[in-house]
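Fold this sequence, please.
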Amino acid sequence: MGLELLRVLEERDFPVRSLRLLASERSSGKRLAFRGETIAVEVLRPESFRGIDIAFFSAGGARSKEFAPYAVQAGAVVIDNSSAFRMNPETPLVIPEINPEAVAHHQGIIANPNCSTIIMLVALEPLRRLTRVRRIVVSTYQAASGAGAQAMQELLEATRAYLQGEPFEPRALPHPYAFNLFSHNSAIGDDGYNEEERKMILETRKIWNDAAIAVSPTCVRVPVLRAHSESIVVELETRPPLQAIYEAYRAFEGVELVDDRERNHFPMPVEATGRDAVLVGRLRYDAGIPNGVALFACGDQLRKGAALNAVQIAELLMQTGT
């Protein structure tokens, strides 16, 4: 996410007076480009945050738990992309298109939601503004980027080996990836849900401030490089006219409606890659429940699912002065 974060900051012309890049000793001295300059990566230390206003964290939960308190103590606001603080009652969990007001209640740390949750809730927010969502049934088709750069490289190498008829031993992921899909590679709990699915359930309730909403996710890893897709069915309090649903999606910032039935053209990960908007289509009344609506969504996991959402949170901080 780090490189994507630099790209988004530059593309959105975020006001940066000075930029400090921090990482482990292994990356120390590496130079990265930003606005025509190259900036050396420094070793992350407890004293690294002096003079910093906003600190973006994307090095995993353990690093966030260890170093975020130092950043807050130094006066910075931490925007954390890990799961370390998401379910802390004192930490806002923010998607700017949905709950921007939550930013004002931070106590030094703001959590960036899980990528699958962000894409799902942005895709559903136009519906929720028409009527309450009672239940969500979602199946995710998650790209390699969600498992990191090594998983993306493994997909490329495994595909090349498969096409050349050569053996390939998975390293970054537990199963063969080329021309295959498998249940999301996170730990399964006693209830049968994996960690990714549990995140979608709990984060949805927190972001929407709705403890009663039912969420039934099934998360799957598919051989796509960096855009997640989601098949979603929702049960609504009431069922709005289909025209009103279409109008709500056309008017909602952050969503692009891709719904051409005549050409059979709907959201695809190849078209969502590199885009800021979440693509939504296949909008239809669900045939199985009276107040059901079904749809399909795609979003770039590295952008709206991570870096872009983090930068949008920072923009809110700048606007509100919190």
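The chain has eight helices and 13 strands. The chain has two domains: 2-113+306-320, 116-301.
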